[in-house]
């Protein structure tokens, strides 16, 4: 495997990967949705600790639901200089005023700045506002025949890995609404969610193959189908829907 030129001076060259390691990483891709490892296949313990610390730091805010890491750090292809990409889920109904919103944003900025100074790792944050009432309303509209109203994006985001126990309360409310739908509509909704998650997942696989050429998949459609099955299992389990 030819080493890749570093993006910047902080990057190290991608290491050589022996055949056994390639086979192991390919098996992980086919059997696990998440792989919190670096390009060398080593566990991302330090990055996982940063994510846990971030979750703990934000837990004092009532509107905070949980953090949802995505990208290279949880998909097995980060370099030492890679950012940690995180969605922060927030209950929109509990953000009472501008001052509270600003305080939450400042807290995120403070943690990210302090972490960068301490660990040298940059955190990229995207705030995802969860509006449970709007999600329920859209599901009910979908139930009445408006297919375009189905809230695919927020439910897909809540199907991803999210830290903490609060997310269970929000998922339970959405699950209760989904279970009111006829089986045919449940199947349609689950397929739409799985398609959305699989599409996003495919982009991660492509980036991983670019960074680690030995892991490029000529049989990409076959791998995508295997991972779609994994996503379907996860989605059905999270929302309590029978296949």
What would you say this structure looks like, in words?
The chain has 243 residues and is mainly alpha-helical. 53% of the residues lie in helices and 9% in strands. The chain contains eight helices and three strands. It has helices at residues 19-31, 45-58, 98-119, 132-143, 152-157, 166-178, 183-211, 220-239; strands at residues 64-70, 84-91, 123-130. Strands 1-2-3 form a three-stranded mixed beta sheet, with helices on one face. Helix 4 (132-143) runs parallel beside helix 6 and helix 7 packs across helix 8. It is flat.
Morphology: flat
Largest sheet: 3 strands, mixed
State the assembly state of the protein chains.
single chain
| Element pattern in H and E | HHEEHEHHHHH
Beta-sheet strand percentage? 5-15%
Q: What is the spatial order of strands in the main beta sheet?
A: 1-2-3
Determine the structural class based on helices, strands and strand pairing: mainly alpha
Total helices: the number is 8
Task: Provide a compact summary of the structure.
Helices cover 53% and strands 9% of the residues. With 243 residues, it is mainly alpha-helical. A three-stranded mixed beta sheet has the order 1-2-3, with helices on one face.
Features:
single chain, three-stranded mixed β-sheet, 8 helices, 53% helix, mainly alpha, disordered N terminus
Structural topology:
Blueprint: H1 19-31, H2 45-58, E1 64-70, E2 84-91, H3 98-119, E3 123-130, H4 132-143, H5 152-157, H6 166-178, H7 183-211, H8 220-239
Parallel strand pairs: 2-3
Antiparallel strand pairs: 1-2
């Amino acid at each position: 495997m030819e080493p890749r030129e570093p993006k910047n001076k902080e990057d190290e060259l991608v290491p050589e990967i022996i055949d056994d390691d390639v086979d192991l990483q390919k098996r992980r891709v086919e059997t696990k949705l998440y792989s919190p490892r670096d390009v060398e296949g080593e566990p991302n313990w330090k990055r996982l600790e940063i994510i846990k610390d971030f979750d703990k730091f934000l837990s004092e805010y009532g509107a905070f639901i949980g953090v949802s890491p995505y990208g290279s750090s949880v998909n097995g292809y980060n370099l030492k200089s890679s950012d940690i990409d995180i969605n922060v889920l927030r209950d929109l109904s509990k953000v009472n005023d501008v001052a509270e919103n600003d305080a939450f944003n400042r807290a995120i900025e403070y943690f990210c700045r302090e972490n960068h100074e301490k660990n040298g790792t940059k955190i990229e944050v995207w705030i995802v506002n969860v509006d449970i009432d709007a999600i329920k309303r859209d599901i009910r509209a979908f139930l009445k025949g408006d297919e375009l109203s189905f809230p695919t994006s927020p439910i897909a985001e809540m199907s991803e890995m999210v830290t903490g126990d609060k997310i269970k309360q929000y998922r339970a409310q959405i699950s209760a609404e989904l279970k009111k739908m006829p089986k045919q509509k449940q199947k349609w909704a689950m397929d739409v969610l799985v398609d959305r998650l699989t599409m996003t997942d495919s982009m991660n696989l492509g980036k991983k193959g670019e960074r680690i050429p030995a892991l490029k998949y000529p049989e990409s459609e076959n791998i995508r189908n295997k991972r779609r099955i994994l996503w379907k299992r996860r989605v059905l389990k999270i929302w309590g829907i029978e296949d």
